[in-house]
Amino acid sequence: MEAPTTKQQAILDYMKGHVSEHSYWPSIRDIQAKFRFASTNAVFGHLQALERKGVLQRIPGAARAYKIAPEVVPDLSATVITYEGPGENVIELDAVPFLGAIPAGFPDYTESSGVVASMQAPLPAGARRRPPESFALRVRGDSMIEADINDGDTVIIEPGTPKHGDIVAALIDGETTLKRLIKQGSKVYLKAENSNYPNLTPVSSLVIQGIAKQVVKAI
Fold first, then answer.
1. Is this model's pTM higher than 0.70 or not?
2. Is 179 a catalytic residue?
3. What's the CATH code of the domain at 112?
4. Catalytic member of 179, 187, 195, 213
């Protein structure tokens, strides 16, 4: 059995702890709130990964329900978790140009050299088509891990006017990075979602290249 990632193990531990404390399974939205995921689709992605690794099993006849595999935790094997979001059969895919990598760590001079490939990224149910200027970037580094954006994940970047708190692809003093945009009065800076990294305040220039609208997990 393939071992879960650190995040997947944390989700599994939370689910088991919730059952022990409350005698019932947490909902998908409980998990979303606990780990501050942007959507329930992010939770479902981790559940799918745990299923592929043999930790969770589908309930026969119920496409969106899971149980913990009996060989993993025998005393919880009958407990059911149900996904309330869109089923796999209604998730649309949209082609997005893939432009390379972006640092989620200290900024560096890595910039896109143009379209290197394309990828099929899922559209959230009911979502509009992405703007044609959208693009995908592979994440390098760990500065955004507390926003559940990890090394190897892919972010879908869309054009737009960023608001306070948006996660953005930015060019700060000529260097590229992925961070959260913070606006405090006239002060604007970039914040990492990892306490090991400092805030980044532009010395001469800050150009927002786009807003991170979706994360496609590396599984």
1. no
2. yes
3. 2.10.109.10
4. 179
